[in-house]
Amino acid sequence: MKNINKTTDEFKKIVQKEQPPVNKTANFFKAFLVGGTICLIGQVFQELYMAFFNYSQQDAGTMATITMIFLGGLLTGLDIYDEIGQFAGAGSLVPVTGFANAMVAPALEYKQEGFIIGIGANLFSIAGPVLAYGMVSAFIVGLLQTLFGG
Amino acid sequence: MGIFIKAFLVGGLICGICQLILDNTDYTPAHILVGLVIIGSILTGLGLYDPLKEFAGAGVTIPVSNFGYILTQGVQEAAEKDGLLGLFKGVLDIASAGISASVIIAFFMALIFNPKK
């Protein structure tokens, strides 16, 4: 029994010792490369929408965002985005393609539970908190600026 | 040509920093996404996101922090016009397209595809 009498901290140390070391520098550059590339692709779409569809810069940016959401969702459905994520970590999480992935992946995972509780609810398991906190912080910032004339 | 390099560098840097946070703290990816949106919102309030966008283009409009930017920008513009009502009315003004597209596209993707066995 004496092996089981470990505190949480001791247990953590044992687990950490047995895990392969994480190469944080390599992880940083992988995330940097993939994340930067995704942003670069977004910029290319934005320029294309401005050049060929005569969108304003703002609208072309929005269209580029929507295109990236589509691609992120599609690659998630095709089971490719997770592979990218294994390599890129935050590089595929932080761009808006990662947001699309965070909606589609749990919805797919719980699809068998039905359209409402399965797909409907799980679309928002991560997107929900993101939108809630985004809207609340936007409100607070707006309120402070209204009150103090910032 | 410069804007492409700047978008790559700035966007990449944001992702790299988030990777460092993931590797060195107990925060989860969901924390990162929520944190980025809040940071985007605060930077917008401080008037810093517009110059960043001017400089790096998609380098700051493709990361999720952009949701914080467009949500807050909508509130700011509407509050100037409609006061208190604008604080509520403006939230989705600019963000409408991005958020609606996310929900609609994600729904159909989840509908069309099946999870891996």
Which characteristics define this entry?
heterodimer, A: 150 residues, mainly alpha, 8 helices, extended, B: 117 residues, 7 helices, 79% helix, globular
Can you characterise this structure?
The complex is a heterodimer of chains A (150) and B (117). With 150 residues, chain A is mainly α. Chain A has a domain of 88 residues. Helix content of chain A is 81%, strand content 0%. Chain A contains 8 helices and no strands. Chain A starts with 7 loop residues before the first helix and ends with a helix. The model of chain A has no long low-confidence stretch (mean pLDDT 92). Chain B has 117 residues and is mainly alpha-helical. Chain B has one domain. Chain B is 79% helix and 0% strand. Chain B is globular, with a radius of gyration of 16 Å. At the A-B interface, helix 2, helix 3, helix 5, helix 6 and helix 8 of A face helix 1, helix 2, helix 4, helix 5 and helix 6 of B.
Describe this structure in a few short sentences.
Chain A is built from eight helices and no strands. With 150 residues, chain A is mainly α. Chain A has a domain at 22-109.
